[in-house]
Amino acid sequence: MNITTVGIDLAKNVFQVHGVDERGKASLKKQLKRAQLLPFFANLPSCLIGMEACGSAHYWARKLKEHGHTVKLMAPQFIKPYVKTNKNDVADAEAICEAVSRPNMRFVPIKEGEQQAVLGLHRARQGFVKARTAQANQIRGLLAEYGIVIPKGIGYIARRLPEILEDGDNELPDAFRQLIERLGTHLKELDRQVDELDAQIQVWHRGNDASKKLEKIPGIGPITASALVASIGDAKNFENGRQLAAWLGLVPRQNSSGGKQTLLGISKRGDTYLRTLLIHGARAVIRVSEHRLEQANGWPTRIVDRRNKNIATVALANKNARIVWALLAHESEFQPDYSVAAVAV
Predict the structure, then answer these.
(1) pTM for the predicted model, two decimal places
(2) Which of 21, 82, 126, 275 has its CA 20 to 30 A from that of 103?
(3) How many CA atoms lie within 13 A of 117 on its CB side?
């Protein structure tokens, strides 16, 4: 049984395997339990293995590579067109096996354990930030029912809550006063969790040369830099900076036909978290540039003069994504006054 290509439909406990030989003829259709997967592939000659980039895919990819196999991950939306019949595990495994052998298929870089750990910190932090915002809004809404309005901004809640709870003239019932105190304590705990995760990310950032390099780009701080380095991995997997920007969903979405080019808003594909960080950072740069004379003639200001601020913000985020690729792919340092014309001369 000379198997050259294998598709694995991943699951929690039961895995479906489909393999073909060098002529493309199906020679392996097998269902494996979780404990049987690695021993089975340890005894299989080295071959090309394809999997969907889903939960646990990076773990299995690393394990299978240790046994000498070539492993490639693909986005699920690129595999769906190869499913010939109704969706089931057998059809999915066959589609994965077919898709991985396509010469023009796009693959997902396999993440190392450290990359996943850093991204885990970011995802946990993001969850705590969302929970903190929701808790703050709940406190604000409950107090508004009693005619107590707190100004916008999460910082005002922590400052105003003690005086609201101690004020005996606001006619708050005792049960409600105890509830607000409980919610305020919970808000402080969420804030503490965010600060601790921020500190852990900062520690990793200071120990990573690539992350510190990206921090020098205006609009990119330690949080964004560490998330980008952990997500991108080897920047040479992308052909150019525009491909990285497209991967982040920062390029125009097309609806072209009949030779007529129609460009719409940004595609918003890829990682929403990374795109959000880049756009928020770009928005901060534009806001600061409006109040600094030395940046009055800068690139972001010139864009704002021609278009609105939101378009300028996305344009700067796109530009920063391309700069990130250039610094990581060419292992160079950020130069604020860099110009292609100067280098050519």
Answers:
(1) 0.85
(2) 275
(3) 7
> 318 and 237: one domain?
yes
> Final residue of a domain: which of 206, 225, 245?
206
Q: Which residue ranges in the chain fall short of pLDDT 50?
A: 341, 344-345
Of the candidates 266, 263, 260, the one whose C-alpha atom is nearest the C-alpha of residue 311 is 266
For residue 297, the model assigns a pLDDT of 60
| Residue in 295, 297, 246, 293 with CA at minimum distance from that of residue 269 | 246
The tens digit of pLDDT for each residue in 35-45 reads: 999 999 999 99
- How far is residue 210 from each of residues 10, 204, 319, 334, measured CA to CA in Å? 33, 11, 18, 11
Q: Is residue 108 assigned to a domain?
A: no
Asked whether residue 107 is domain-assigned, the answer is: no
119, burial (CB in 10 Å: exposed 0-12, middle 13-18, buried 19+): middle
Buried b (16+ CB within 10 A) or exposed e, 286-325: beebeeeeebeebebeebbeeeeeeebbbbbbbbbbbbbb
Distance between CA atoms of residues 69 and 265, nearest Å: 41
Domain residues for the domain of 263 are 216-344
In the chain, the number of structural domains is 3
The rounded distance, in Å, linking the Cα atoms of 248 and 271 is 6
The answer to the question of residue 211 being in a domain is no
For the CA atoms of 81, 83, 85, 86, the dihedral, rounded to the nearest 10 degrees, stands at: -100
> Angle at the Cα of 298 (from 293 to 301), degrees rounded to 5?
85
The count of residues in the chain is 345
